[in-house]
Amino acid sequence: xxxxxxxxxxxxxxxxxxxxxxxxxxxxxxxxxxxxxxxxxxxxxxxxxxxxxxxxxxxxxxxxxxxxxxxxxxxxxxxxxxxxxxxxxxxxxxxxxxxxxxxxxxxxxxxxxxxxxxxxxxxxxxxxxxxxxxxxxxxxxxxxxxxxxxxxxxxxxxxxxxxxxxxxxxxxxxxxxxxxxxxxxxxxxxxxxxxx
Length: 196
Known about the structure:
Elements: H1 2-11, E1 16-21, H2 35-52, E2 56-62, H3 66-75, E3 82-86, H4 94-103, E4 106-110, H5 122-131, H6 135-144, H7 157-164, H8 173-180
Parallel strand pairs: 1-2, 2-3, 3-4
Helix pairs in contact: 3-4, 5-6
């Protein structure tokens, strides 16, 4: 609860619209440490308390696996409003999407652009060329077209504007299938799989 209250203080706010637990393990503990599930439950209980007080309008999690999310949803009083995870054609996370849908949790994508690392990948550049769009626009549209909200990161005003220009075109079914077929479990961020 201390970190959550510190966030409110630092932001000089009475409440926060959405507050997330960033990762399913405790900093400094090994992935296999059995204190991780206990700490997750305690952290969630603290967020539920702040939610009940109106300090957080909604609470959620980030980087949880299907197992972590199922465990949370079995024991929570206030369900997670959102799960924010890495999501792009190379990491589709279908099982996690299904768990979110089953429990009414918004599945939100981060790292959809893979920090630009795959903008030269041939399938992506072909789809971008066919649609007269940038690779970034194609990756964002691929997610949004599946109903997945995305939060692209950029400090460049031109890229921010470009990233917002994805609602005036649609990818064909063939484009969507080609991109989805790239799924190979490739992560850019830390892998939470196997965390106790």
